[in-house]
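Attaching the record inline, Q. Sequence:
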Amino acid sequence: MKILVVEDEPMLREGLVDLLTGAGHEVTAVADGLAAVEEGRSSAYDLVLLDRMLPRLDGLAVCERLRVARPGLPILMLTARGAEDDKVAGLRAGADDYVTKPFGVKELLARIDALVRRVAGLPKEPETLVADDCRFDLGRAEAERGGEVLHLTAREVGVLRWLFRHKSRAVSRAELLEQVWGTIGTLQTRTVDMTIAKLRQKVERDPANPKIIVTVTGVGYAWADQEA
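Structure, as predicted:
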């Protein structure tokens, strides 16, 4: 597997790299949160081994951003914190599993194998979508219309993914806040409207008459009923 290790402690980072390389995996290691987000978004990984406490951007924020950009990416969080609230926070941020330091080598390798097997059994989401002659490359956070490349934010990618995943129904603003922003009650639903308005300006042929993301009066938004 191709694994991204995110750990700021040099000795532990090197030890994890040696362990995983010795187990036959291809390993890339970074030492801070911002580098983890950049690397995780730019390359296709089979697993991220993510420390909770990181410089520049903590592990929870890294997890949230990677989960928006690549929802199917397995994330195993490592931390010295063992309290239940800390574990819950990691899982709510999007981690698939949680291992408390210090951990045994055999346990870590077994959890990695189990996590990858579990995720491999889930249906794969498309990374490329086409709607109203606009092509979306969600993995690269880009859209293309008429030969023009349009750059998308992580939130915009998250909105597109969620609406497409649930294209059989309308999605409320509150649901988008919870699933894309990862928050409940702390942001105004107007935040969703502003994000979608900016997204429409980028990708819709006529933002005033959208054909990709449509408004459902009294509910929220929906992916237009079309082949994609």
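The chain has a mean pLDDT of 87. The two ends are 30 Å apart (CA to CA).

More tomorrow.
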